[in-house]
Amino acid sequence: MNEIADHLDDGLQILFIGFNPSLRSGEVGHHYANPRNNFWRILHQSGLTPRLYDASQDGELLKLGYGFTNIVARPTRGVEDIAREEYVAGRKLLRAKLEKYRPKVACFVGKGVYTEFTRRSKVDWGFQDTVEPVVDGVREFVAPSSSGLVRMPMHEIVGIYRELSQFTEENED
């Protein structure tokens, strides 16, 4: 089981940040590869991508200005398998990545990812109105997890991601 390579670059519109890769993603080496994960459908339905991409094409999204990373790099069956120490180390690494690459938006794929990273307990969906962002100049956005286990209706999830799509349209260089 391998860690999955981040897809990072300077000038990203959005850096999508997950908890950690699934076992399936670890097997195939691509982000959001579990067939029950709705990530790729959500991106397309929200207007973030012009077509439906497959996990095997995750590197191609760099061309659209989208990158991928996780707070913990090690693939696991679920977040309950992540050790406290991994989160501590992951927070430091993620902060360093955000400071180095400075995406316009850090999109946390799940409230738990955001609260684990920021240690903040009050979180709403969408852009965070934080007086002190974790990294200066990087907008923080909290989106629902794309896991197939999420009980929120798909149209509501897509609606939240649509805010990101509108932001990218308004901020095209």
Summarize the structure in words.
It is built from five helices and five strands, in the order βααβαβαββα. It has helices at residues 23-28, 39-45, 84-101, 111-118, 154-170, and strands at 14-18, 66-70, 105-109, 126-127, 139-143. The longest helix has 18 residues, at 84-101. It starts with 13 loop residues before the first strand and ends with a helix.
Can you describe this structure in just a few lines?
It contains five helices and five strands. It has 173 residues and is α/β, with parallel strands linked by helices.
Q: Which percent bin holds the helix content? A: 25-40%
Question: What order do the strands of the largest sheet run in, or round the barrel if closed?
Answer: 2-1-3-5-4
**N-to-C SSE series?**
EHHEHEHEEH
Described by strand count, sense and barrel closure, the largest sheet is: 5 strands, mixed
Annotation, overall tally of beta strands: 5
Measured distance between first and last alpha carbons: 39 Å
Q: Determine the structural class based on helices, strands and strand pairing.
A: alpha/beta
Rg from alpha-carbon coordinates: 15 Å
How would you sum up the global shape?
globular
Tell me, rounded to a whole number, the average pLDDT: 92
> What is the strand content?
5-15%
Main features:
alpha/beta; five-stranded mixed sheet; 173 residues; single chain; 5 helices
Task: Tell me the layout of helices and strands.
Blueprint: E1 14-18, H1 23-28, H2 39-45, E2 66-70, H3 84-101, E3 105-109, H4 111-118, E4 126-127, E5 139-143, H5 154-170
Parallel strand pairs: 1-2, 1-3, 3-5
Antiparallel strand pairs: 4-5
